[in-house]
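Budget justification note: compute hours in this period were largely spent on complex prediction jobs such as the one shown. Inputs:
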Amino acid sequence: MSKELKTHYAIVGAGIAGITAAEAIREVDSKRELLLINGEKVAPYCRPLIIELLKGERAFDEVHLRGQNWFEEKNISIITGDPAVRLDAERKRLLLESGSTVEWKKLLIAVGSKPAMPRINGIEDVPAFTLYRQDDIEHIKPRCKPGAKALLIGIGLIGLQAMTSLRELEVDVVAIELKRKVLPLILDEKAAKYAKQKLEQNGIEIHLGTSVKKVWSVNGTGHPYAALTSGGDEIAFDFLVTTTGMKPDFSLINGSTIETNRGIKVSPDMQTSVSDVFAAGDVTQYPNWIEGRVEIHAHWVNAYRQGRIAGLRMAGKISAPYDPVYINSLNVFGLPIITMGASRIDKPKDAEVYVSNAPARPAYRRFVVKGGRLVAATFLNDTNRAGVFQYLMREKVDIGNIAEALFDQKLEGMEFLYKYHDEVIQGNVDWPASMDLIDKYKKDHSHTRWGKVKKRKKS
Amino acid sequence: MGWTRGRCTIRRIYTNHLLCSGCRACSVACTVAHFGVADDSRGAIQILRDPLEGYEFQAVCRLCEDPECVAACMAVALSIEPDTGRVVFDRDRCVGCAMCVMVCPHHAVVPDWRAGKAIICDQCEGRDMPACVVACATGAVEFVEVEEAAKLEK
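Corresponding output:
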């Protein structure tokens, strides 16, 4: 039944960006009506946790973003299961799938992204799934029987989560990655080697540097489908899961005058090129100061921060802009890995690389310093003090002179930094003075103890 | 910089490194109170040590004004309690992704890899005084209002 709705604030998309924006609006403005349009049939949920649903360890109401009461308490109306399909930015209207229209004064687009499907011959004829929404889980779950064989295309973050869950359900997994290392967007060569080792120890068959050319169904017993890789291998499987990345979902704004490139172009306060239309989360593009280019930061923290800035701005409050840093924390079958910044680049230019490596454990830490600033960090099986490094990176603290001390675990350089905590962490940064202290510190203590960190200078 | 959330006054654990002897009684008391074992590596308050100068630094939740951990928690296990301003942690919801560990600039979130959960200070909910404050023999750990702690930190 179509309705004509009127609202002051409209938010399309009930992911973390949309929910945070709604929360931020209500902090400033508790009166004017706020409508949240959720395209999915279920209540807003934590998207990264859908994999927990596959494992069956959690029920759906344990992964929701906010309880039902929250919406009532905050006086937020929510439409569920009726996605917005068209935007008329000039007349300030939204058309929903059911035919209802929504008239708004201020709009936030937080529709997120959708999975990018690889082009494979015959993919229509085999059971192929993406892993993104709650209903994907419902499709995959019945096929996860012990002994079934899954073909996984793309070893990225979602792929890794999928593998972990599938193995827990005793499904055999063959994983294919186009690049020559696993998790190519976040790991350098060495870290990827350790991760690959761990995956293989857990029974995952990995093919790197290859792609799937075609898939078809086979007659006879055994696994009912087969795939041919560009390397010439033939792989039998029961179902196919594609986790080859995401792209912003432009279906709502197609045909509107909102400027886009890779994502929706936004100003630091999350305004799009059209007045009163804001955008936040995975659908936007934002400058990456580390690599000096504009890209999509499809990331939880980014969506949260952007949602908050957008919400406050919509309600008339300007907050400090947010410089995103690409940070990731993952668990490869019990091997914790944390990466930050441009950690995927194997041979960074004009940068100093600090590596500490203990293959026996294995434990591996790698830091890249460029122009005095930390631009990449990898922690593998040794995540100690990662938060502090994240802070140094995000706040662009000049650590040029103390880098060596910071990365030396034997010297516990971090404690050294804590000693000057008030100056550094609390923001009263008075670097010249602390630099003197550091020089003194260096002089006071034997230089032989600094030998732990291998320093490699790249020209 | 003092601040309040809503109308309430917020109290937090303040540590004075000049009084700390590094005995780790606070960490031990914390794990005894929460897990029933003496295991200082899992304490929500951690003592970091500089081996060369013997300097002790205490890492514990400082109740940031805009907590990074709450922003980063993709399971929504961390939230700000409206009445008390505390950062509350729902252990059941935690999936052990370690995002909070990764973003805390104060090294105040401890990963418990074996249990696959984060450990974060809850100010000993249900007790009059946090266990670490009671356990500290030198008075290095105090439970004070946020504004007062900010003054002391200066």
